[in-house]
Specification:
The structure is a single chain. The chain has a single domain, classed as SH3 type barrels, CATH 2.30.30. About 10% of the residues lie in helices and about 35% in strands. The protein is built from one helix and five strands, in the order H-E-E-E-E-E. A hairpin with a 6-residue loop joins strand 3 and strand 4. The longest helix has 8 residues. It starts with a helix and ends in an 11-residue tail after the last strand.
């Protein structure tokens, strides 16, 4: 699957290099989208060496370039 497929199928603004906030586990860990594998995003959380797979809609908030949550002004 591709990043375009994930954007269309799940209605999310996922883009390689985009910033996200993983809200599961630790309280609000920021990360960077590095790619896609199947139906999942590959995200490298800040402070980690490797990217892990995350579902595009499960405990993920997409951030704008200025650091705000996507869809908010």
């Amino acid at each position: 699957m591709s990043m375009e497929y994930i954007r269309t199928a799940y209605g999310v603004p996922a883009r390689r290099g985009g910033r996200v906030k993983f809200t599961g586990g630790d309280a609000g860990t920021m990360g960077t989208i590095t790619g896609a594998r199947g139906h999942y995003l590959r995200i490298r959380l800040d402070g980690h060496k490797r990217a892990m797979s995350y579902h595009p809609t499960w405990e993920i908030e997409y951030m704008t370039p200025n650091g705000r949550r996507e869809g908010r002004e």
